Amino acid sequence: xxxxxxxxxxxxxxxxxxxxxxxxxxxxxxxxxxxxxxxxxxxxxxxxxxxxxxxxxxxxxxxxxxxxxxxxxxxxx
Length: 77
Known about the structure:
mainly alpha
């Protein structure tokens, strides 16, 4: 039996834009707090650092949204 996950459940299989926006709103403060020291981190490092609090997919969506809005800068593809 797999160990119980500490992460909240991921978004449902079929989600609305409201569901996505709500997930991003929950994750954004933690991503920005992690990055506020100015130390560059890879997407994988950010996901790993926050995976105990948020679903990996929600973290990835949040990073993409923040990059589109210019709140974070993605480097190296």
